[in-house]
Amino acid sequence: MAAVKRNKPAANSPTPTLRHLWLAGLGLAVIARREALASGARTVDGIGALQRRAQGLVADARDNVRGGIESVRGQVEPTVVKFSAEVEARLAPVLDKLGLKGGKKQRRGARKPRKAAKPAQARRGARKPAPRRTRRA
């Protein structure tokens, strides 16, 4: 049996009226509001994703800098120690001639050890203000 195509007459659409126009505008406003709220939520999500990405990039950069500093420190530190030992070795005879000890280093402006605190004296009663002199007229 062959499929028979039936032609239906097109439904007569009513002519647009002001009510149809009003309802279409109202529907458009509802859809626009819904999309505006959804786009706001999408924007907030996008900002959060950008923030996480930026924090990841900052953490990577910080780790790279720290790694570079560690490698430079590993190269510089032995040189500094060697230089310091060489300076001390050259200064030792000069310090001996001047009669200064070369063994212990003192910081400039080092504080002397504190003395033990004196015991607090017992306080007497509350002090009274000195009497005021009266003026004679």
Automatic annotation (TrEMBL):
Basic residues: bias regions: 102-117, 124-137
Chain spans, region Disordered: 97-137
Protein name: Poly(Hydroxyalcanoate) granule associated protein
